[in-house]
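Incident log, support desk, overnight shift.

02:14 A customer reports that sequence design results differ from what the structure should imply. Their input is reproduced verbatim below. On-call engineer (initials T.W.) acknowledged and began investigating.
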């Protein structure tokens, strides 16, 4: 049974000229990609400090690389779900639009989203662990592979203890200060600085809609919340906007 979408929510979106969508791991979970913090999350098997910190990479680069290769293979088997596709459709409906994602799996791009900021990087890109530059193919088949300069390559993702890419963070917060509306989808609302974006948008008079399976710290901030699967809710919103 589909979730009922209030007409007032559609009316609010129709009045908005600038829309931001903020997504978290809950969107990818509907493509059967495990989240880090859920009951079946990847951190049940490995602790974050063992695999997703610069110190872990320095200590055991082979283990970290192999784990990320496992994640890449897992993601490659997944497909964008109806939520990803609906967000790509929202981009077409709003001339001034920005998708801000905390996900590193690239599924939004595969669904057709073009105006997006990947706050935490992209797991399918590699960069040099010495100078940070993006690198295409590795020089050799070492595990982990090496850059032409001889340093190890690492996934282009933000690890615990690292800062987010300044250009991505700046673009996300700049848009949050001027959008009319923000839809927050599938995010726990506890990972900062991304979790601060709805508050920034709210401070600048934006209307906030939360779409999630359950209440989060963002629920009290949101003007409206719809609880259920994003893959069922967002396509309904798109369909109602196109009537």
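02:41 Re-run completed on a clean worker. Output:
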């Amino acid at each position: 049974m589909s979730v009922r979408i209030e007409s007032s929510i559609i009316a609010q979106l129709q009045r908005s000229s600038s829309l931001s969508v903020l997504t978290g791991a809950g969107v990818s979970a509907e493509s059967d990609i495990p989240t880090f913090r859920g009951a079946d999350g990847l951190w049940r098997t490995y602790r974050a400090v063992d695999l997703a910190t610069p110190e872990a990479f320095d200590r055991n680069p082979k283990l970290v690389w192999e784990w990320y290769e496992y994640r890449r293979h897992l993601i490659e088997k997944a497909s964008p779900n109806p939520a990803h596709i609906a967000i790509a459709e929202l981009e077409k409906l709003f001339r001034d639009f920005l998708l801000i994602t905390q996900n590193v799996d690239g599924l939004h791009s595969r669904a057709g989203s073009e105006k997006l900021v990947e706050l935490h990087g992209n797991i399918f890109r590699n960069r040099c662990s010495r100078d940070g530059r993006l690198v295409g193919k590795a020089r050799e088949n070492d595990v982990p592979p090496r850059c032409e300069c001889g340093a190890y390559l690492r996934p282009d993702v933000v690890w615990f203890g690292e800062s987010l890419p300044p250009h991505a963070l700046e673009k996300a917060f700049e848009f949050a200060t001027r959008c009319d509306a923000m839809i927050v989808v599938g995010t726990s609302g506890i990972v900062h600085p991304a979790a601060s974006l709805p508050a920034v948008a709210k401070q600048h008079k934006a209307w906030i809609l939360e779409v999630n399976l359950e209440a989060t710290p963002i629920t009290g901030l949101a003007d409206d919340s719809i609880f259920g699967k994003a893959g069922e809710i967002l396509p309904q919103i798109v369909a109602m906007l196109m009537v």
